[in-house]
Model the fold of this input.
Amino acid sequence: MEFRVDRQTFADAVAWAARTLPARPALPILAGMLIEVTDGGELTLAAFDYEVSAHATDEAAVAEPGRVLVPGRLLSDIVRNLPSEPVDVFTKGSEVVVRCGPAEFGLLTLPVEDYPTLPEPPAVAGTVPGELFAAAVAQVTPAAGRDDTLPMLTGVRIDIEGDTMWLACTDRYRIAARELTWSPEDPDFTAGVVVPARTLADTAKAIRRGADVSIGLGGTADTLIGISGGGRSMTSRLLDDQYINYRSRLTGTWTSVAEIPVAPFVEAIKRAALVTERGTPVRLAFTADEVRVRAATGDSARANESLGVRLDGEDIDIAFAPQYLLDGLAGIDTEYARLECSGPTKAALLTAIPDKKDDDESDAAAEGADTGYRYLAMPVRLTS
Done:
């Protein structure tokens, strides 16, 4: 095997495949990264841990086709630190030599014949713009659970009905959901699956910008999802598809509706959180034209700040874990947000208010529009 490739191209491809390398591989062979080049000038790097697989495909100047397995993390560290010159990779005896300018490394190959066969991705079910998909995944994954004893809660629920896709996560104390439009291969396609949140978040962030994302889903007996775009692809096992009916919980009758400027509200919460300890909430007292943001740690420190808002309905005094509020607000990219409450002990709904466009004649366009993002959070019960 022998080929030459641009250093940045090689580094990006290695980084993509290295994401799935297990920190503690069940088998030593799974620590390897597969490198394959063809007569047609195609370079493929791949990694697999029986749960997730990753492929990166790029062009290279191939002098001799071949297929080898090398220590993946070591290759990733080496390539990341190479100088900005073309990279030559070739086999020499039992080594793979990586040469870049004055730097040269030799990596002992692993037995490629012992490497497991990588899974075939399911058939493509449809496509979605990469930036839209990445933004939606980033909005919902902060609400995913971290407790591996409850695997369902560590995943992203993906529901598809025709050209509508919903993504949702919950850790039992909050729900983050996003509705978006995609392009299915079959206009009557439906699906409901749960994908590991960390895997989906890493994949969405790493997909090349400007590329459409293809999503592969099979029938009811299929246990894999496939995601690809821009020469990058992955497969991941699915989690148990049992999930709460989250959409029914994102509607309700609200007695208090506040419209809040997002950026000043975020800064006020961050300042108030400086005096909180673990488990201490930030308290929000809404009246007709302002919200008071308060927090305290016993008698040792306190914070108190007022911010102009618009409130329709009843005054309300409600408290939240500050990070829960910040996670929800991070998913809003408009100037104003809407917080809807129906009491200090009931879950509150946070949504984005679409920005007005220059040709809007009134508030009607913004009021009627919808960004598709919902964030429902349980408040902390106030004791006084």
Notes: Residues 7-18 form the longest helix (12 residues). The mean pLDDT is 92.
